[in-house]
Amino acid sequence: MTRRARITGLGSYLPERVLTNQDLEKIVETSDEWIFSRTGMKERRLAAENEYTSDMGAKAAFAALKDANLKSEEVGMILVATSTPDYVFPSTAALIQHQLKALTIPALDIQAACTGFLYGLACAKAFVESGLYNHILVIATEKLSSVVNYKDRTTCVLFGDGAAAVVVSNQGEGFEIKEICLGADGEAAELLMLPAGGSRFPASEQTVASNMHYIKMEGQEVFKHAVRRMEMAANDCLQKANLPPEAIDWIIPHQANERIIDAIAKRFGVGSERVFKTVHKYGNTSASSIAIALDELVKQKDILVGQNLLLVAFGAGFTWGATILTKQKDL
Ligand code: UT7
Question: Which residues have CB under 8 Å from 107's CB, separation 6+?
Answer without folding.
Answer: 77, 78, 79, 80, 91, 93, 94, 96, 97
